[in-house]
Write a structure and sequence with these properties.
By secondary structure, this protein is of the alpha/beta class. It contains 12 helices and 8 strands.
Length: 274
């Protein structure tokens, strides 16, 4: 078994997608260390040969892994050599899709990023909205939100909100459940009016304690007893208002965000045509 492998992400565009796809495969091999390098904007045979020479020289004949998303067949073919382990990520997928969809693919470098760029204005607007409606501010504007997150202090509302805005272009408001709301089991009218957009976040008392302890060590606010009580009160409030809940402990921000969008019915996205 290899202990270490050199890995190269080669693309005719920025190589961001190539890296994401390659890493999604390599993360399954925890016992191996990977030395990674991106080689973007390989658009000519000359570029490809120069990149290949660099790869072979730097890896010293140790059969480096090369993940590739180059569209041009002639340029891509340069990397089909015995000195490297070549992975054509697109492979025959485009050919098969052309047959299934009964039309020709663009086969243009960076097409995915071009589609993404068209949404830039919407994402910027979502980010501005999300930052302006963090931690219970400007609740009167909740009608404009795509999602409203509830949770006790330090339950992860802000990072999830920012992820949903930056990666999915969603306007997200988040509202903290303070002692006032928890003791009365009452939510503001602005939240109740938009209940179909609301998702509650919860976690384990142990994890909440660890998070709070980092900033307010030894405080009553960070104690296990306080964390347990607040989380229990929050769960009772969610039940009272029929608010769906995502339990965040042991989950990544990406996983939490997907679950949140599913609960409010934002699980499908239609791409606009270029």
């Amino acid at each position: 078994m290899w202990r270490v492998k050199d890995v190269y992400y080669v693309s005719d565009s920025a190589a961001i997608l190539t890296e994401e796809l390659g890493r999604s495969l390599l993360c399954q091999f925890h016992e191996i260390g990977f030395n990674e390098e991106k080689i973007p904007f390989i658009r000519t045979v000359k570029d490809a040969r120069k990149a290949l020479d660099h790869i072979i020289e730097q890896s010293g004949g140790m059969l480096p892994l090369v993940f590739c998303t180059i569209m041009d067949d002639t340029v891509r073919e340069v990397f089909h050599v015995p000195e490297v382990e070549f992975f054509d990520i697109y492979g025959g997928f485009l050919d098969k899709l052309e047959r299934c969809l009964e039309t020709k693919a663009l086969r243009e470098p960076g097409a995915y990023r071009q589609i993404d760029d068209q949404d830039m204005g919407r994402r910027v607007e979502a980010i501005h909205y999300t930052l302006a409606h963090d931690d219970g501010t400007r609740t009167r504007e909740y009608d404009d939100a795509d999602i409203i997150l509830l949770g006790v202090s330090r339950s992860g509302k802000t990072p999830v909100s920012v992820y949903l805005a930056t990666h999915m272009g969603l306007k997200v408001a988040n509202f903290p459940l303070t002692e006032e709301h928890l003791s009365s089991y009452q939510l503001p009218e602005d939240v109740i009016r938009n209940r179909k957009k609301v998702v509650g976040l919860s976690t384990s008392p142990q994890l909440l304690h660890r998070v709070r302890e980092k900033r307010y060590s030894g405080s009553r606010y960070a104690s296990i007893a306080t964390c347990s009580r607040e989380l229990q009160q929050a769960e009772q409030m969610y039940q009272r208002y029929g608010i769906p809940v995502v339990h965040t402990d042991g989950k990544s921000i990406e996983e939490i965000s997907v679950q949140v969008t599913q609960l409010v019915g934002i699980s499908r996205k239609k791409w606009r045509r270029i």
